[in-house]
Specification:
The complex is a heterotrimer.
Chain A lengths: L1 H20 L3 H21 L3 H26 L11 H23 L15 H4 L1 H12 L1 H22 L7
Helix pairs in contact in A: 1-2, 2-3, 6-7
Chain B lengths: L4 H21 L3 H24 L12 H31 L13
Helix pairs in contact in B: 1-2, 2-3
Chain C lengths: L2 H20 L3 H24 L3 E11 L2 E9 L1 H24 L6 H20 L3 H19 L6 H32 L4 H10 L4 H18 L8 H4 L5 H10 L1 H11 L1 H6 L1 H22 L5 H21 L4 E2 L2 E2 L2 H31 L12 H4 L1 H15 L5 H13 L3 H26 L6 H4 L6 H16 L3 H4 L15 H20 L10 H4 L4 H50 L4 H22 L2
Antiparallel strand pairs in C: 1-2, 3-4
Helix pairs in contact in C: 1-2, 1-4, 2-3, 2-4, 3-4, 3-10, 3-15, 3-21, 4-5, 5-6, 6-8, 8-11, 8-13, 10-15, 11-14, 11-15, 13-14, 13-19, 14-15, 14-18, 14-19, 15-17, 15-18, 15-21, 17-19, 17-21, 18-23, 19-23
The chains are: A mainly alpha, B mainly alpha, C mainly alpha.
């Protein structure tokens, strides 16, 4: 179990790093897909099967395709011609390191964090993960779900409006 | 030996840090956007981890509220990506660039 | 609703309806105003036959232990005063119909008159200091409006401003006095105060100061020295206004108020002494100044000042200790008696002057008149009657009231002498005025073309002349002051006064007969003792000093430091912050990240 956790964590972090390091946007996008698949696996190690599945469906399936589609639509070249901004690089690395150091220190002093995972009895079919989430979503959080629907509708309309070429429809 | 909550949180934090570094260092706005998604997902990971260790003895918390919250985050993120990419397309049409250094009309 | 309340409110209704409704219709406005004055006069006739006492009261304001009431008090004094106000008011209203016939601001003028009638009735009928003070200020406002009626004329605008400001000084003292008195006794109602003073004893110095402060109000309103400067300038207003406000009623309000608080004056001997001497000084100085003026209205204004001085002096004698006992109400009754008779003959003189001015096409310089007795006999004869009354010739009203005043001053020889000199001067300057204006030959085209004024202006003159003749007899005043309550001169005083009056008249006539200009010119009197110049100098010194200081503070501190300093600070901070607004997305993200790291750091420290 622990081994799987380390493998998927490693995959996720390494490909996440590749997203940042890759010069070619298409490579970055594909790296992000792999990274998100690792993340989905981590969700499943946490017995959150539903979340893991929609992570793959929504992110890797829909969102990343959208990214790739836009990258190709805009025909974006890689950044090779541009010089690296070393000051920005240095600053970014410093901030990130400071952040990680703080995180480490805080987690070191976080007592509940010491607990280890205890495996749940049975498998996914026993837990009926999707059913429980669905029940919560459609009963207790029904109103919120409706709101979310409205939000998505607005986003759709917004995208249509934004995508129109200037001068069109006037 | 099962992984501990701290390990999950650490991984989540590292993913967040990588995403943040990308936002700071990359100048292609699409990559920056991807890194933002990464940071958002890192937050999701810690949410689910807290749920899974919710009772304090390595067992999940009562109820599925945390997962519903993650569901909502993913859904809103999807909407955000759609709108954000539409904005990027509009921006590219107007300026013919996706490099944030060229987008400095807000300079004071 | 008692009669008194109707008398009080009717002019207000008239003024309001003119100002808010019918001001476009000038004639209708005038008739509304005159009608309200007429009804008020008729109601007054009913009121003065009724019994005294309080009429209708309601609480206007209640703060802690203080209750401000709008309540009317009807006493003998009140009845005498309200008769003067409504009678003279009505006659002036009628006179104004003629005098202001073609004035562009006729509606505004009559609205002002009605407003004044309302305010003045309020002062007369008020039963407590607070209410009196409110109406005191209201008469100030209406006086301001009427003096400045011809506000297009710069001098009129200036004069109204001056009157208002000078009155403010006095009113401030008045208010301080009311507050002092209230603080000391806890009462502001007149009758309540009188009763309190009877049963309790208070610190005499406190009462003295309170009374002096209250007297300040009278000094301002009744134009006593040193605040007399506004009254001569107030003659810039229309002449009927001068007759009503600046001769018969408003300026007498100070004397009326002092009479009303006689019990306070008795309780405050030092203040009483101040009042006597201020009155005497005013009487003398004003009479001196009147002898050298050439503007007909200014002469009458100084004459008014002088007579007001008489009244104030007499009222002040109420607190004079005569062999260990205060002279008391007898003295203030004498002052009020003089006020009563004076209102008739001075209003008569002013309206007569108004008629002369009207006939001479608004010429006010007496040296450009002359021989008018042949051209306008009614005006001239009534004017001469007024003059005789003012000079104190028997048996006219002025003789009786002046006798009463002088009888009071017999308590103090220096003031008696001052009074006698003033009496001589009074006869002298009035004789000078009449000699120049009505006798001899005309000195200008305007005077030659003069003719008798219309009936509407003659009638008030005749009625007032009648009043000036009979007001001093017992049947005309006995219903509000019992003759026993008036002082009676002892010895040969009436005879001496008559001789003095005749001597003054004869001197004045002989000196000025047939002259083209003053035979004796005393510069200091012509320039009114340089008091105006002195005030201007004072104002200039202090005002310029303060202005200089204010300028320095303004330029250095306010402009330099606060205004420009803050502007510069804003610009500087803006420039500083502008560097941060680089428009570079990643720099913003970087700063954002730094902020997050700092916040996390602080939180971990805070949580230990």
């Amino acid at each position: 179990m622990s081994l799987l956790f380390y493998i998927f964590s490693g995959v996720m972090l390494v490909f996440g790093l590749l997203v940042v390091v890759n010069r070619n946007p298409v490579s970055s996008a594909l790296s992000l897909v792999v990274s998100f698949m690792g993340l989905a696996a981590l969700f499943i190690t946490l017995n959150a099967y539903f979340i893991g599945v929609i992570q793959i469906l929504v992110y890797t399936g829909a969102v990343m395709v959208l990214f790739l589609f836009i990258i190709m639509l805009l025909d974006i070249k890689s950044e090779q011609c541009r010089k690296l901004n070393y000051v920005a690089m240095g600053g970014g690395v410093m901030i990130v390191l400071a952040f990680v150091a703080q995180l480490t220190m805080i987690l070191a002093g976080y007592a509940p964090g010491k607990q280890r995972l205890v495996e749940l009895p049975g498998d996914a079919a026993v837990h009926q993960d999707v059913k429980r989430v669905g029940e919560a979503l459609f009963t207790h959080f029904n109103f919120h779900l409706q709101l979310l629907g409205v939000l998505l509708l607005i986003a759709t309309i917004g995208v249509v409006v934004l995508s129109r070429r200037q001068g069109e429809g006037n | 030996m099962m992984p501990s909550l701290n390990e999950y949180l650490m991984v989540s934090g590292l993913l967040f840090a990588i995403g943040f570094a990308g936002v700071l260092m990359r100048r292609n706005i699409i990559i920056i956007f991807m890194c933002l998604e990464m940071m958002l997902s890192a937050a999701n990971l810690s949410l689910v981890a807290f749920w899974r260790f919710g009772n304090g003895q390595g067992m999940p918390a009562q109820g599925y509220d945390a997962q519903v919250l993650v569901f909502f985050v993913i859904a809103v993120a999807a909407a955000e990506v759609a709108v954000g990419l539409a904005i990027i397309v509009a921006l590219f049409r107007a300026r013919c660039t996706v490099h944030v250094e060229d987008l400095n009309s807000m300079k004071g | 609703m008692s009669i008194a309340f109707i008398i009080l409110l009717l002019p207000l209704v008239a003024a309001a309806s003119i100002l808010l409704g019918i001001r476009k219709k000038a004639n209708l406005s005038a008739y509304v105003s005159v009608a309200s004055a007429g009804i008020c006069f008729l109601l007054t006739l009913g009121l003065i036959r009724g019994s005294g006492g309080e009429a209708g009261a309601f609480t206007w304001l209640s703060v802690g232990g203080l209750e401000l009431k709008i309540a009317l008090e009807i006493t003998g004094l009140t009845r005498g005063m309200i008769l003067v106000v409504t009678l003279v008011g009505l006659l002036v209203h009628i006179f104004s119909l003629g005098y202001m016939r073609d004035d562009a601001g006729k509606a505004r003028y009559f609205a002002g008159l009605s407003l004044f009638m309302f305010s003045m009735s309020g002062i007369v009928l008020a039963d407590n200091f607070a209410m009196m003070f409110i109406f005191w200020e209201l008469v100030g406002v209406s006086s301001y409006l009427l003096i400045g009626h011809w506000f297009q004329k710069n001098s009129a605008a200036e004069a109204s401003k001056k009157a208002f400001l000078v009155n403010r000084i006095g009113d401030f003292g008045f208010m301080a006095g009311i507050l002092l008195l209230w603080g000391a006794t806890g009462e502001i109602g007149f009758s309540a105060l009188r009763e309190t003073l009877e049963v309790q004893t208070f610190d005499p110095s406190l009462l003295n100061w309170a009374m002096i402060c209250i007297f300040c109000g009278a000094v301002g309103k009744s134009a006593q020295v040193p605040l007399h400067v506004w009254l001569p300038d107030a003659m810039e207003g229309p002449t009927p206004v001068s007759a009503l406000i600046h001769a018969a009623t408003m300026v007498a309000a100070g004397v009326f108020m002092l009479t009303k608080v006689t019990f306070l004056i008795i309780a405050a001997p030092v203040a009483a002494s101040v009042i006597q001497h201020v009155g005497a000084l005013t009487a003398l100085l004003a009479a001196l100044m009147a002898t050298q003026q050439s503007d007909i209205k200014k002469i009458l204004a100084y004459s008014t000042l002088s007579q007001l001085g008489y009244m104030v002096m007499a009222v002040g004698f109420a607190g004079f200790l005569h062999s260990g006992e205060a002279v008391g109400a007898v003295a203030s009754n004498a002052g009020f008696f003089h006020l009563y008779t004076h209102a008739f003959f001075k209003a008569l003189l002013f309206l007569g002057a108004g008629a002369v001015i009207y006939a001479c096409h608004h010429e006010q310089d007496i040296w450009k008149m002359g021989g008018l007795i042949r051209l306008m006999p009614v005006t001239a004869i009534t004017f001469l009657i007024g003059t005789a009354a003012l000079a104190g010739l028997p048996p006219l009203s002025g003789f009786w009231s002046k006798d009463a005043v002088m009888a009071v001053t017999q308590n103090s020889t220096p003031l008696l002498i001052v009074g006698a000199i003033t009496a001589f001067l009074t006869a002298f300057y009035m004789s000078r005025l009449c000699t120049i204006v009505f006798f001899g030959k005309a000195r200008s085209q305007a005077a030659r073309e003069a003719g008798e004024v219309p009936l509407m202006m003659r009638a008030p003159l005749v009625i007032l002349a009648l009043g000036a003749v009979i007001a001093g007899f017992e049947f005309a005043y006995g219903w509000f002051i019992a003759p026993a309550d008036l002082p009676h001169p002892h010895g040969a005083l009436p005879l001496v006064l008559t001789i003095i009056g005749v001597a003054g008249i004869v001197t004045g006539y002989l000196l000025h007969r047939g002259r083209e200009k003053d035979p004796i010119r005393v510069e200091v009197l012509v320039r009114k003792f340089y008091i105006d110049e002195f005030y201007l100098f004072l104002v200039r010194v202090f005002q310029d000093g303060v202005a200089y200081l204010a300028k320095a503070v303004d330029q250095l501190l306010i402009d330099g430091l606060i205004v420009r300093g803050s502007a510069r600070l804003t610009v500087g901070v803006g420039l500083l912050l502008r560097g941060l607004q680089g428009g570079n997305l990643q720099r913003h993200v970087f700063l954002f990240g730094v902020g997050i790291v700092i916040v996390i750091y602080l939180i971990t420290i805070a949580l230990g």
